[in-house]
């Protein structure tokens, strides 16, 4: 997802362009890593001293709802990143130290085969967590 596409989606859904939304989306566009609300707040407070977690979480919830951002939970905290624009189905390895992401083309649903007779799978999510080579080398 890029900023242009994100703003098209927001505009199509009746959302106005604001400085706060712009800064939040820019932070996500500038990294492939997952970010937390605290990561955003630490940066945004410089330009918006009165910025609150409520404002950040409200915007993050909107971005997730509109498929602009993806969300995962690590160590009990919600983490976000720009939605993948990949044309093929895939999953992710996520580094718990730095938040970097590596695409995985393997899908565990392929292994289920006929294990769910009579069931209709509507969606699934598969993420692998650990440490990337860069973080392993700093230990």
UniProtKB/TrEMBL annotation:
Name under which the protein is recorded: Fur family transcriptional regulator
UniProt subcellular location: Cytoplasm
Similarity field: Belongs to the Fur family.
Signal peptide: none
Domain of life: Bacteria
Species for this entry: Lysinibacillus louembei
InterPro entries xrefs: FUR, Fur_C, WH-like_DNA-bd_sf, WH_DNA-bd_sf
Keyword field: Cytoplasm, DNA-binding, Repressor, Transcription, Transcription regulation, Zinc
Keyword Cytoplasm: yes
Classification via SUPFAM superfamilies: Winged helix' DNA-binding domain (SSF46785)
């Amino acid at each position: 997802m890029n900023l242009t596409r994100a703003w098209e989606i927001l505009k199509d859904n009746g959302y106005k362009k604001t400085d706060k939304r712009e800064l939040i989306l820019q932070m996500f566009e500038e990294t492939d890593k997952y970010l937390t609300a605290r990561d955003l707040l630490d940066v945004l407070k410089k330009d918006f001293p009165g910025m609150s977690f409520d404002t950040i979480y409200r915007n993050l919830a909107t971005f997730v709802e509109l498929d602009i951002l993806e969300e995962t939970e690590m160590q009990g905290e919600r983490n976000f990143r720009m939605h993948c624009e990949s044309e093929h189905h895939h999953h992710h390895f996520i580094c718990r130290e730095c938040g970097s992401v590596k695409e995985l083309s393997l899908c565990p649903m392929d292994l289920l085969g006929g294990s769910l007779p009579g069931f209709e799978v509507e969606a699934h999510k598969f993420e692998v967590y650990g440490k990337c080579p860069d973080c392993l080398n700093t230990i």
